[in-house]
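Postdoc handover notes: sequence design on the structure in folder B. Input tokens:
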């Protein structure tokens, strides 16, 4: 399932090409809009976020004990 940003990033260039935009204009549009989306996701275990430095060892232990899943964002 696509969110609104993903759909626009996928169909936007197609619609612009159909509207007569040149390859250079399409390229500029993609470069301007590529950083607009972000992704949210959860992980089941804290091993990788802890090793990667996203969460501390104490937060990982507490989250595991309370059976919480970390919510991460990627821009």
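Designed sequence:
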């Amino acid at each position: 399932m696509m969110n609104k940003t993903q759909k626009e990033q996928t169909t936007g260039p197609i619609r612009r090409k159909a509207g007569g935009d040149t390859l250079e204009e399409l390229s500029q549009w993609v470069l301007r809009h590529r950083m607009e989306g972000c992704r949210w996701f959860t992980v089941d275990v804290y091993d990788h976020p802890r090793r990667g430095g996203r969460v501390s060892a104490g937060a990982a232990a507490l989250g595991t004990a309370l059976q919480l899943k970390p919510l991460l964002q990627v821009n």
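Context for whoever picks this up: The mean pLDDT is 82. Don't rerun without checking with the PI first.
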